Amino acid sequence: MATDAAPPQARFVVTYDTPSDVEAFERHYREVHIPLVKQQPGLRRMTLSHRPTGVIGPAPYLVVMMDWDDLASLQADLESAAGQRTVDDATTNLARYATFRGITMELADA
């Protein structure tokens, strides 16, 4: 992961509903998926939050936030071979256990 002093300007957020098989999901996520994500050359930071508290509506089982320098870097990583392996793993392997949603966003100070 890159380590610059400037704050990241782009984020990819993925939420996962409660898996049908929590143990299998967690094992695959830790042993296979996270190492794939970390192969993204522009990835600055990856954070996980298990079982967050819902404030409005039901909370997902897992929220993952990944930061990049900018949207162009994020998009380039998603389109790279490493990015495609990560997407393929999620849609092929993780999707059998849990519904998930992903969004990209540009970050700005308020």
What features would you describe in this structure?
- The structure is a single chain.
- With 110 residues, the chain is α+β, with helices and mostly antiparallel strands.
- It has a domain at 21-46 and 69-110.
- The protein has three helices and four strands.
- A four-stranded antiparallel β-sheet has the order 2-3-1-4.
- Helix 1 (22-37) packs antiparallel against helix 3 and helix 2 packs across helix 3 (81-92).
- The longest helix is centred in the first third of the chain and has 16 residues, at 22-37.
- The radius of gyration is 14 Å and the shape is globular.
- The chain starts with 9 loop residues before the first strand and ends with a strand.
- The mean pLDDT is 93.
Largest sheet: 4 strands, antiparallel
Q: Report the radius of gyration as a whole number of Å.
A: 14 Å
Count of helix runs? 3
**H/E series, N to C?**
EHEEHHE
Q: Summarize the amount of helix as a percent range.
A: 25-40%
The fraction of residues in strands falls at 15-25%
Shape: globular
Query: Helices and strands: which structural class?
Result: alpha+beta
Short description:
The protein has 110 residues and is of the alpha+beta class. Helices cover 34% and strands 25% of the residues. The mean pLDDT is 93.
Compile the SSE list and pairings:
Blueprint: E1 10-16, H1 22-37, E2 45-50, E3 62-68, H2 71-79, H3 81-92, E4 100-106
Antiparallel strand pairs: 1-3, 1-4, 2-3
Helix pairs in contact: 1-3, 2-3
